[in-house]
């Protein structure tokens, strides 16, 4: 455990598990937002101004507004693998280290992706609502028919750690794996995942199940819109495990209503936690409240890794998951 002569100040912007707070209290003076709600941008900016480090989640946007008066800030540690809430260029300019929590959530999130795929393909949510509403009077041969998962083709967009873990699950279901990634993967990883590299268009046209797991950037905002949905098979499912902004939700709602695609499973939303009301009206969709990594074991591991990163940064050691590496070299 690192020690400091004068305890540095740390903003903990969201509620964390008590064991995390105890760890931080040993090495720092804590400004704790113990409310369930995130701080407003103005509150965040004001409270971050007086600290040496901040522990945040994807709900906090760390940009020029948040950092306007943050003159002693060394590091902002995200309890999330995705870091689209960080303006990395601005943080780097301000010499503020940025870290995230990869690896520890890979398998849990891959499980979630596969679950959304299966639930969407087999109409689990729709069936359950129907059953609960008392509509089930008789078993019928043509009742609640879905589409198959086994021995079909999965198209994974974003073949990082989570994408690869999903590919390995797909292989156990006898699926053919095709993928698109900004950069083609090394041959040994392609072989390990038995995955074939294709263009985005080929993927959308060939896949029976499309899985979105890429990082969200300015370039892929609304990457999946009306044109792309029209390329998909009418029997295809779409799962978004990445970030809401990658999919044009209004286009998706239309595609689901018109049966342009079979169904969808979403864990993330454009304006979350506000949900586009149209999504609540279509039956052929499975909706989860951004819980991809939500098991106790994984969320604890994410918190501890984020604290490790934060303490390293405060102690002038290189954080394990430093994003803006140029600050170190
Ligand atoms: C969750 O969405 C994460 O990025 O960890």
Question: How does this structure look, described?
Answer:
With 329 residues, the protein is of the alpha/beta class. The protein has 2 domains: 9-102 and 296-327, 3-Layer(aba) Sandwich (Rossmann fold); 106-287, 3-Layer(aba) Sandwich (Rossmann fold), CATH 3.40.50.720. It has 12 helices and 12 strands. The protein has helices at residues 18-27, 41-48, 88-93, 106-121, 124-132, 161-172, 187-192, 200-206, 226-231, 249-257, 277-281, 296-314; strands at residues 9-12, 29-32, 53-56, 75-78, 97-99, 153-157, 176-180, 195-197, 209-212, 237-240, 263-266, 285-287. The strands form 2 sheets. A 7-stranded parallel β-sheet has the order 8-7-6-9-10-11-12, sandwiched between helices. The protein has a 5-stranded parallel β-sheet with strand order 2-1-3-4-5. The radius of gyration is 22 Å and the shape is globular. It binds glyoxylic acid.
Order of helices and strands, N to C? EHEHEEHEHHEHEHEHEHEHEHEH
Assess the beta-strand content as a share of residues.
5-15%
Q: Let me know the CATH homologous superfamily of the largest domain.
A: NAD(P)-binding Rossmann-like Domain
- Beta-strand segment tally: 12
Q: Number of helix segments?
A: 12
For the biggest β-sheet, the strand order reads 8-7-6-9-10-11-12
Q: What would you report as the Rg, rounded to the nearest angstrom?
A: 22 Å
CATH domain topology of the largest domain: Rossmann fold
Quaternary status: single chain
Terminal residue distance: 25 Å
Q: What level of helicity do the residues show?
A: 25-40%
Second rung of CATH, namely the architecture of the largest domain: 3-Layer(aba) Sandwich
**Would you state the CATH class of the largest domain?**
Alpha Beta
Q: Write down the overall mean pLDDT.
A: 97
Shape: globular
